[in-house]
Design goal:
- The protein has 5 helices and 10 strands, in the order βββαβαββββαβαβα.
- With 223 residues, it is α/β, with parallel strands linked by helices.
- The chain has an 8-stranded mixed sheet, with helices on both faces. Strands 6-7 form a two-stranded antiparallel sheet.
- α4 links the parallel β9 and β10.
- It is 26% helix and 26% strand.
Length: 223
């Protein structure tokens, strides 16, 4: 059962496979409250890494909207990863950690005397972990083309996991849009999508990227 994507905000329909891409402005989880239980194959989340209240909400929300054996992919950082994983584990089953080899803007952390050259992603499942396709635990960490957001995720990285952890026509949810990389990946791969962001500029960037994807006139981050 899919959520009612007709009733909220703006909708974008991509060419070719015509997935439904629903982009909303507002705070998670309020504006995604209508996403139907057990309707999503995949949740992709990138909350503020130090916001433990958000991490707890992501775990609860994912357990609610994921279908049986559905998957959560969360960009989890390094500093707060232990606490975040504990909060997610109250609702979902731990599967694996993946690694994003992308340097931070300020990679040197003097508090632990460490040069951080990447960050973690955590993969969790609602029930058994049975992904539709083989996957890699380290995928490209370079943002190619225009950078739409200070913490933008590489499109090639996101597309890999969307393709491996969902099937065409299934629903993918992203409660922290950022610049909409997950939405772009779903539009390109034929997955239905719903997501939101509390920052209007982020929603505008997402809609702009989706519009240029349809027209083919500008760089959305092509890889």
């Amino acid at each position: 059962m899919r959520p009612d994507l007709e009733s909220r905000d703006r909708r974008y329909t991509a060419a070719r496979v015509e997935p439904v891409i629903d982009v909303r402005t507002g705070a998670f989880p309020d504006v995604l409250a209508d996403v139907a239980p057990e309707s999503a194959a995949l949740v992709v989340a990138d909350p503020p890494w130090n916001d433990l209240v958000a991490w707890s909400a992501v775990g609860q929300f994912s357990a609610h909207v994921l279908q049986p054996n559905g998957i959560l992919l969360a960009y989890i950082g390094t500093r707060w990863c232990f606490e975040a994983m504990d909060l997610l584990s109250a609702h979902l089953t731990r599967v694996r950690l993946a690694f994003l080899p992308a340097p931070h803007e300020q990679p040197w952390d003097p508090t632990v005397n460490c040069l951080e050259v990447g960050s973690f992603m955590v993969i969790m499942a609602k029930g058994a972990f049975d992904p539709p396709a083989p996957w890699s635990n380290m995928v490209e960490g370079v943002v190619r083309g225009q950078r739409w957001h200070p913490f933008q995720r590489p499109l090639a990285n996101v597309k890999h996991y969307v393709e491996a952890f969902s099937r065409p026509g299934e629903l993918v949810v992203d409660p922290f849009l950022g610049s909409g990389t997950t939405a772009v990946a779903c539009a390109q791969l034929g997955r239905n999508f719903v997501g939101c962001d509390i920052v209007p500029d982020n929603v505008h960037a997402t809609l702009t990227r989706l519009g240029t994807l349809r027209s083919g006139t500008a760089d959305v981050g092509a890889t």
